[in-house]
Amino acid sequence: MEWIDEQQMKTKAMINEASSDEDDTARHPLRTCSYLVFLVSAFISILKSYIVSKRKLLKVPGFLQQQEQEHLGDDGASLAGLPGPASRSHTHKSRGKANKDCNYAKGKWVADDKRPLYSGNECKQWLSKMWACRMMRRADFSYENYRWQPHGCEMPEFTGPNFLERMQNQTLAFVGDSLGRQQFQSMMCIATGGKYSPEVEDVGWKYGLVKAPGALRPDGWAYRFPATNTTILFYWSATLSELEPLNTEHAVTSYALHLDRPVTFLKKYVNSFDVLVLNTGHHWNRGKFNGNHWQLYADGKPVGNGSRLADLNRAKNLTLHSIARWMDSELARHPQMKVFLRTISPRHFVNGDWNTGGTCGNTVPLSNGSEVLQDHSIDIPAESAVKGTQVKLLDITAISKLRDEGHISNSSFKAFTGINDCLHWCLPGIPDMWNELLFAQI
Q1: Which residues contact 215 (CB under 8 A, 6 or more apart)?
Q2: What does the alpha-carbon distance between residue 19 and residue 38 come to, in Å, rounded to a whole number?
Q3: FRET partner for 337 with CA separation of 20 to 30 A, picked from 10, 18, 141, 374?
Q4: What's the pLDDT tens digit per position in 312-333?
Q5: Number of neighbouring beta carbons within 10 Å of residue 34
Q6: CA–CA separation, 342 and 63 (whole Å)
């Protein structure tokens, strides 16, 4: 633009010079014609140069956006060729709109040399030894070097700093069984980069998560990141149902497991959570119920042996529907909260179960395929439970089913007893992907 001003000044000078000789040219008609030709030629030359210059400027990346932002009163962020706030907002909205209808469970596992997201050797502060396969006898770790890519969806970069920034002044709660605890430990390792983090505060006491006298461990854990005021917690509830002691005076106490009542911890603290992830599934069997002395209750009454709810699959389905509808009513009062029901994590026992010689010895990634193409979850009860509610489905079942090589298998400390773990996962590992899908949706 300075160049244009300079040309205009030159033009004015020539016009003034012509004006000063007005009397002289009036007396000489030929000289007058010469001046007119000169002025017209000069004007045409300047106009051509201006047009060429304008075209060059228009080719500069970001020039049109810069002009638009200057017109709108932008603070100049786009002057370096970067999109201004309006442009960034449009991009964010476009991405949000594109991902709003994304089926994150439909996609493909792809190799990625940037994985895993943390070191299994270094994240000792948060990882349980029984799940840290890098500290076991296992020798093959190729299962760590994959990520999930949903079809037609943009996945945000998942790092600890990005997660903490997004969850600033917020609380993420996991409530569920040992697979939920694995997801919790995975998130702690990702949030800290797997590094020792003495600045992270133990705030379990705020949620009653303290070890009771004689207990092996507390019912859960809660940790706060001071820099962003982000809290991540886990509460152990294998069935998501309220447990009520029935005979406290006996040496062995039985418990009423109320299928239609949410676990007491949720009723007490749900208003403290911004993001909540629920899971249940693997404790709904007679062995677990008998071992824990759980007795089925519904509508405040014992479930009789002849009742349809005596079937534990039906009992579980009632709990899933009950918790989804209770959470839906809570969301009506707290619309900013996001609640997810995570689908069941698949088991991969072959030739038996955990206590009958079942194994899962495959170590070759994606031996059974790498892609999920179906539109609906293979965890039909969970998908049915959230239908018609504001509770979202965190669908990880079919994706995880492709990764049988990621289990702890015979690498655990219990392997010498002949027991293989084909239920839980090595960490780093598949639960990291569950958290990546969660991050994409919060």
Answers
A1: none
A2: 13
A3: 374
A4: 999 999 999 999 999 999 999 9
A5: 12
A6: 47
Q: What is the mean pLDDT of residues 3-8?
A: 46
The pTM (predicted TM-score) of the whole model is 0.78
With b meaning 16 or more CB within 10 Å and e meaning fewer, what string describes 96-134? eeebeebbbbbbbbeeeeebbbbbbeebbebbeeebbbb
Residue in the block written with tokens 């004015």 = 12
Is-cis flag, bond preceding 61, omega within 30?
Answer: no
Element spanning 313, H or E:
helix 312-333
Taking the C-alpha atoms of residue 340 and residue 395, their distance in angstroms, rounded to an integer, is 9
- Averaged pLDDT, 411-423: 80
Rounded Cα distance, 384 and 168, in Å: 33
Query: Tell me, what DSSP letter sits at residue 150?
Result: E
Half-sphere exposure of 236 (CA within 13 A, CB side): 13
Give which of 396, 404, 373, 381 is closest to 313, Cα–Cα.
381
Q: How confident is the model over 307-317, as pLDDT tens digits? A: 999 999 999 99
| Banded model confidence at residue 49, pLDDT cuts 50, 70, 90 | low
